[in-house]
Amino acid sequence: MFFYVATIFTATATASKVHDIVCERCGTGFSYELRRAATGHGRAHYCINEKGAMDQAQTQLLKAVQDRLTEEAELVPCPKCRWVNDELVRKYRNAKYRWLPRLALVIVPLGVLTAFFFGYLLRGHMGTASPLPFYLTITLMSISVLSPVWVYGIRALLRRRINPNRTYPGHVSVPIGTPPAIIKSIDPSTGCQTFRVVPSLDPGENPAGWAVFRAGRIEFPKTCWRCGAIEAKPYVAPCTTPKRAFPTHLCRSCASRTRLLWLASVPVVLAVILGLVSLVCLLLPGDDMGLRIGLPAAGGIFLFIFSLAIFPDKMSRPYRLGVIDAARGICKFRAANPALMQLLNEQIARIESRPPVSAPVPPPLPSRPLN
């Protein structure tokens, strides 16, 4: 019997770099802070040479974050004329929709299986004399096999649609989370350098009722997120995944209420899954009851376990957290407690008004061994 053991070192960090820009239209000079996150991995096979694996993770991290800070950009308009330089637009376009080619790797096998599945269903309902199941299967398979071609075409069209200067000289609309422009000047009386922050977005362009922030830049208050009580402790849902666990703080009474809401949402999830399983059982052709009932029931069990870690927590938690742009690390947060939202908005305003600085990359941390 073959056993494989390895230690995986993961280095994840966020770094920033200040870019100096000169407007192509009016010649105004300004700066902005480009902030990006990256990840590096190193593997020590059979726990041998762990120091080398850690160095490999650090090397990958440094290369990845430097490439992102050099090759990517933000659509920061000129603080005077609101024009966005063509170089910023080009770099921003090239960084968008990089995940679409990987989607073709999923479409090809999934499309082929879907074609055979629908062909099998139609043949059971229409019989073997009808040519429709054959033509439908061939059509779906052809679309799936040619997915790399039309996926790259869709990506090119989506990138071409990104043009903030389309409405120039009118109102120039830039993406949510665009960092502000920084104008540097020298105070003639003191000789010291001063900074003036010019927001890239109008206050009304952010989602109403949401606090928009860049990941890793704010610290959530440790008071109760429901009632605002000072005595609050971290709360974790009864069933959730490590990636979905969020450091929520609730007082004792609000934590009990949240757990009751979580338990009440479980029957709702179960009822929806039972309805889907029953529908699949009715659609499957044939007289083999083991196939018509056993296969959907097994899939329903796995779907219920998967859903149990996602939907009850999402339905009972006292906040809403969304990702506006994962590649840029732009998130949005909304809670029912107005005092919590006021604290977050004030903190975000203080952070955005600070002068930009370049942040170094920290060293990697080892993850748990992979067996």
Report on this structure:
This protein has about 375 residues and is of the alpha+beta class. About 45% of the residues lie in helices and about 20% in strands. It is built from nine helices and ten strands. It has a three-stranded antiparallel sheet. Strands 5-9-8 form a three-stranded antiparallel sheet, covered by helices on one side. A hairpin with a 4-residue loop joins strand 8 and strand 9. Helix 3 (about 100-125) packs antiparallel against helix 4 (about 130-145), helix 3 packs across helix 5 (about 145-160) and helix 6 packs antiparallel against helix 7 (about 290-310). Residues about 365-370 have low confidence and may be disordered.
Task: Give a topology summary.
Blueprint: E1 6-22, E2 29-45, H1 50-71, H2 86-95, H3 100-126, H4 132-145, H5 147-160, E3 181-186, E4 193-198, E5 211-214, E6 233-235, E7 248-250, H6 252-283, H7 289-308, H8 311-316, E8 319-325, E9 330-335, H9 338-352, E10 365-370
Antiparallel strand pairs: 1-2, 1-10, 3-4, 5-9, 6-7, 8-9
Helix pairs in contact: 3-4, 3-5, 6-7
Number of helices: 9
Strand order, sheet with most strands: 2-1-10
**Beta strands, count:** 10
Structural class: alpha+beta
Largest sheet: 3 strands, antiparallel
Taking Cα atoms only, what radius of gyration do you get, to the nearest Å? Answer: 26 Å
Helix content: 40-55%
Topology order in helix (H) and strand (E) letters = EEHHHHHEEEEEHHHEEHE
Q: What's the average pLDDT?
A: 83
Strand coverage percent: 15-25%
Low-confidence regions:
364-371
Span between termini? 14 Å
Shape: globular
